[in-house]
Amino acid sequence: MRGYKRILRKTLLLSVAVGAFAALVCGCSDPGKDVKHYAMTGKVVEVDKPNQALEVDMDAVPGYMEAMVMFIHVKDAAELEPLRRGDAIRADIVVHSGGSWIQDVQVVAKAK
Fold first, then answer.
1. Helix H or strand E encompassing 9
2. Choice between 98 and 66, residue whose per-residue pLDDT is larger
């Protein structure tokens, strides 16, 4: 009987810990409270499908960052399909306390 109570106590403690962690994660990852959107333009340097990312030679994004080459996560993996090295693109950068990504990626000029 004593072993049963010990297992029950450990299970209860684990359940409380998992519940607290889930509440913390859900509360911290809500991008709706502090989300910002920026228009981005640039040229595709590399399409990284396994990591669902693009390396982009970005133009300056006023109010956010200077021009630079960087890898950035793409929210929807399907948006990577039509992209090729050298394509000129525009996209929406979404930034919040939990991270950033690009979405609504559009090719404005195909690579030559």
1. helix 2-28
2. 66
